[in-house]
Amino acid sequence: MKNLYRVLSIPYVMLVLFCFIQDGTAQIPTNQWNRSKINKYFSDRAKSLGVEQSSLKGADGKINSFDDQYCSDFGVIDITPDTWDPSTTTITWTIQTFVGAPEFHPDWADVVGTGNATVLKFYPDRVTPEYFGAPIWFEYIQRNSLGFIVDTKFDYTTVYLRPTAFDVSGNTEVCIGNSAMVTLSNSEAGVEYTLKRVSDDAPVGFTITGASGGGSINFPLTPLAVGATDYYVEAINPNNNSCSSIMNGTATVTVHPLPVPTAGNDGPVCEGGTINLSGGPAGITYAWTGPNGFTSNLQNPVLSNVSMADAGVYMLTVTDGNTCEQSTNTTVTINANPSITAGSNSPVCEGSAINLTSSPAGGSGTYTAFNWTGPNGFTASTQNPTVANATLAASGDYTVTVTDNLGCSSTLAATETVLVTER
């Protein structure tokens, strides 16, 4: 068998080449010719080839063997005339674009066969990116054995970018309340990228359009719900939604709940007492801070011999095994101890009365108990007791303490020295 010959018509006049090089893009060229200008071009071309004007009737009709649009990764398309003139012995095809200046593209197709068995095999994946979205015009001319034109027709299709599949990344674990990020490694100008959940294909956030020159795209995720969610990215050519792609891979974002801390104490206590702080839950790490420079990493720290400077808010931050943390606090109340001074009518003569006095201060201000002790087995529980008919044995030191209504007592007893003299 003879080799299949390939015929693509060559323009009769050398045309100025107008093109620009760019990466894959979904942006449609802005300097395209309008339809009337293109029709005139083909009309003039037909006249230059010697086709009578009457033969142009219907010459801009549809060539039914191809569709009006394709995605850039579509396979081969076999294009043939709708009808063959019985006298046709040869057919020539031209493929043209009208972006800036007319250009011929013989390398976008192969011609297979001869005569009325000729097929034009068009490959959308050979169309270069600068012509995505621009009409691609196909023209055929059938000639008889004498070389005369017996039929001609032209029609167009449009090839749109099928977005390139780039890689999705962003497997991460975060604590609830924080944000996460899913990243697409690259993008193409004009393509619309949407992050979606794998579970229900629902879009997440807003669509991001690829910028000129491409580059990576970050999809922020906030707020997030507790649990593991898988995400993928869909890319759509907005000029032809059927030209879409699912990007490579998925990203799993795992959101952990925060631990629920508890904090408490066994106060209130009086000055000098002990405060037992309590924290929860068990089995995690703890960080306490509080007044007077207090810090501790214990779950249940103890404050001994507390002073008024230790009163206030104690903050507990707990951190779990997922490094998620949350804080709470407890307020420690410390009651001030009262103080007291003692006095008497000393010196007194033997047989006279000793009048003891006390003056409490501080604490809550409400005093509920006094405790006196002294020589000769003396005790009393009133604020200002009396020792009647004092003897020489009543001479000595008398001490008193006071307790307020909060149960706090003076830590230092007041002492009064009494002298009983002989008559």
From TrEMBL:
<protein>
    <recommendedName>
        <fullName>SprB repeat-containing protein</fullName>
    </recommendedName>
</protein>
<feature type="signal peptide">
    <location>
        <begin position="1"/>
        <end position="26"/>
    </location>
</feature>
<keyword id="KW-0732">Signal</keyword>
<dbReference type="InterPro" id="IPR013783">
    <property type="entry name" value="Ig-like_fold"/>
</dbReference>
<dbReference type="InterPro" id="IPR035986">
    <property type="entry name" value="PKD_dom_sf"/>
</dbReference>
